[in-house]
Design goal:
The protein is an alpha/beta fold. About 30% of the residues lie in helices and about 20% in strands. Strands 1-8-7-6-5-4-3-2 form an 8-stranded parallel β-sheet. α6 runs parallel beside α7 (about 145-155). The longest helix is centred in the middle third of the chain and has 11 residues, at about 85-95. The radius of gyration is 17 Å and the shape is globular.
C-alpha cells in the first residue's frame, strides 16, 4: 500500500486553501483523513503523546488510515540515541495504543549528530522488531554503506529526504520505503520522477508550510502512482 500525505494536519493557515474557512478546528483531522491515507505527526516530537490522545485521534479517521509518529526529541536530540532504552520502551508502548493504525516510527536525528556505526547498531538492537522504524539522517557522514547495512540487518528504512539544502541517497534498506519531500516547489516532471521510485509499500510526506502547497502536491502526486 502506498500512503501519501503531509507532515502534520492541524494548521490554521490552511483555511481557505485546503480547509474550508468555517471548518471547526476539531474537524480538521477527519477532513484530512477523507482525502489522504496517512499523516506524519510532529506533535509527538515535542511532547510524548498519551494513550488518550492517540485513541482520540484514531476515532476520527477511517480504519485504514495510518499515523506516523515522529519520535520524541528526548530520545533523538537530547539523549542522541544513547542510554535511552527506557524512554524508547515508554514511547513505543504508548504508540501501540493506535493498534493497526500505527504506521512507522520516524527517528529524525539532529543535523550535528555525525556517523557512529556502533551507536546506530546498539540503538537498532534495542528497538521492538514488530514496529516499523525509519531513520532520517541529516548529516552527510551517515550516507555510507555501513549505515545502510545496519538498517538492513534490523529491517529499518532509510528515510529518503529531499530539501533545498540536502538530499538523501535513494537507497532502500527495508521491506517498506519512507520519503520526505521537503522542497518548496515541485513541478509535474519532478513529481513524476519521484513517483517512478515509489515501491508498492511506501509512505510519502510533503512539507507543511503556510501556503498549503503540501496538500496540493500530495493531491497531484496520488494519481501519478
Amino acid at each position: 500500500m502506498r500512503y501519501v500525505g503531509t507532515s502534520g494536519y492541524n494548521y490554521e493557515a490552511w483555511r481557505g486553501s485546503f480547509y474550508p474557512e468555517k471548518l471547526p478546528s476539531k474537524g480538521m483531522l477527519a477532513y484530512y483523513a477523507d482525502r489522504f491515507g496517512a499523516v506524519e505527526i510532529n506533535y509527538s516530537f515535542y511532547r510524548k503523546p498519551t494513550e488518550k490522545i492517540l485513541q482520540n485521534w484514531a476515532t476520527q479517521v477511517p480504519p485504514g488510515f495510518q499515523f506516523v509518529l515522529k519520535v520524541w526529541q528526548r530520545i533523538t536530540h537530547q539523549k542522541r540515541l544513547k542510554d535511552c532504552a527506557d524512554l524508547v520502551a515508554q514511547f513505543t508502548e504508548v504508540a501501540r495504543s493506535l493498534g493497526p493504525q500505527l504506521g512507522p516510527l520516524l527517528y529524525q536525528l539532529p543535523p550535528n549528530l555525525k556517523f557512529d556505526a556502533g551507536l546506530l547498531r546498539e540503538f537498532l538492537a534495542g528497538l521492538p522488531r514488530d514496529l516499523r522504524a525509519a531513520f532520517e539522517f541529516r548529516h552527510e557522514s551517515w550516507f555510507a554503506e555501513q549505515t545502510y547495512s545496519a538498517l538492513r540487518d534490523f529491517g529499518a528504512a532509510l528515510c529518503i529526504a529531499e530539501s533545498d539544502d540536502l538530499e538523501t541517497p535513494k537507497v532502500f534498506t527495508a521491506p517498506f520505503a519512507y520519503f520526505r519531500l521537503r522542497r518548496l516547489d515541485y513541478d509535474e516532471a519532478a513529481l513524476r520522477k519521484w513517483a517512478a521510485l515509489v515501491p508498492p509499500d511506501a509512505y510519502v510526506f510533503f512539507k507543511h508550510e503556510d501556503e498549503a502547497r503540501g496538500p496540493a502536491f500530495a493531491n497531484q502526486f496520488l494519481p501519478l502512482l
